[in-house]
# Entry
Amino acid sequence: MSSMLLYERILHSAYIYQHIVENMHDGVFTIDKSGTIITVNPSAGKILEIDNDDILNKKFSEVFIEYPENDDFNQTILDAVYKSFMSHHKIFSYYTGQKMKSLFITTSILKINDKNKSRTVGVNVVFSDITELQTFREAAVAMKINQLNRKNDSWNDRYKGIYKQRVKCRDRYYRSPYQCGDTQYAVQRFF
# Structure
């Protein structure tokens, strides 16, 4: 294979990968070992509500350390960059400066293999805006809790009714043991 053909294949592959990343709905950015953001796709800026020109070729700390609400998010990314022995898959709350969002984030270590040696060159961060999904999930949980509370109230009402009947029966029994009939038997079985 000629070097020109190999070069064309490499360019074609690079174009395809770039096209895939740029058209993803998930946000993607890459941080090198020095903490500089070296790639960013259009969805990243849209999700984070930051202009991509304000992210690209800037230090992560320059762009993201502004809001204390994002400390967990920031620490996870920094750990991935500087303690590059693990990947992360987490849900974070992220403050854009105007509103909170829920993001599902995956970090993965970028390594290059050189002559039987592997070295870390950076971290890839992929994230999805799951704010709507979290809102629906919270609403579903609230509905379930409400439903369980209604069921609990219903059972409490039944219990109170049986307890009141038991008290009435007990009072009648002490007056005349034959007036309670089946109610007494049912109450004794219940308690």
